[in-house]
Write a structure and sequence with these properties.
By secondary structure, the protein is of the alpha/beta class. Helix content is 34%, strand content 29%. It contains five helices and eight strands; from the N terminus they run E-H-E-E-E-E-H-E-E-E-H-H-H. The chain is elongated, with a radius of gyration of 18 Å.
Length: 153
C-alpha cells in the first residue's frame, strides 16, 4: 500500500494566481492539474515544487493561512535566497525575521541557506551560538554574515 501526504492550502479566491507565482519562483516546478467549477474558475489546483506536490483550493474567506504553517525552502547560495525571497514577497508580501516571510497570498515561508544548518551544527557551542545570535538579528538570512559570526568576526 502506498501512502502519500500532500499539503493542502486554502485560499479565498486567488489560488490560481498563487500557484502561478509559486511555479514561476522555483526551477523544476509545474502546475500539474486543475479542477474547475462550472464558471471556469479554479476550484482545486495541484502543483509541484521541487518534486513536492501541493494542492491549493479556492475555498472562500472562512479560513485564513497563518504562520502556524510554513513551507521551508533550503537553498545553496545567497543569490537563491535573494531571488526566491524577492519573488515570493513581490506584490504585497513581507520579509520577516530569521529568513521567514509571508507572501502576498498570506502563505508563510522560510528561505534558508544550507550553510545555516552546517554552521549551527558545529559541536563547538561558542561557534554555533554566535551563528544563532547573528541569525536572530537578521531578516533575510545573509550567508556572509552567518559565516562571519561563525568565524568570530
Amino acid at each position: 500500500m502506498t501512502i502519500t501526504i500532500t499539503p493542502f492550502l486554502w485560499f479565498d479566491d486567488n489560488a490560481e494566481e498563487a500557484i502561478e507565482r509559486y511555479v514561476s519562483a522555483f526551477p523544476d516546478a509545474e502546475f500539474v492539474d486543475a479542477q474547475r467549477g462550472p464558471d471556469g474558475k479554479l476550484f482545486i489546483g495541484t502543483f509541484s515544487l521541487q518534486g513536492q506536490e501541493l494542492n491549493a483550493m479556492n475555498g472562500g474567506p472562512h479560513h485564513r493561512l497563518t504562520d502556524a504553517f510554513s513551507l521551508a525552502v533550503s537553498v545553496e547560495t545567497q543569490e537563491e535566497v535573494d531571488r526566491i525571497s524577492e519573488e515570493l514577497i513581490a506584490g504585497g508580501g513581507t520579509q520577516g525575521p530569521c529568513g521567514w516571510l509571508v507572501d502576498a497570498f498570506g502563505l508563510s515561508w522560510q528561505v534558508v541557506p544550507t550553510l545555516l544548518g552546517q554552521l549551527m551544527g558545529d559541536p563547538d557551542p561558542e561557534k554555533s551560538g554566535r551563528v544563532r545570535d547573528a541569525m536572530m538579528q537578521m531578516t533575510r538570512l545573509d550567508t556572509v554574515g552567518l559565516q562571519r559570526a561563525y568565524d568570530g568576526g
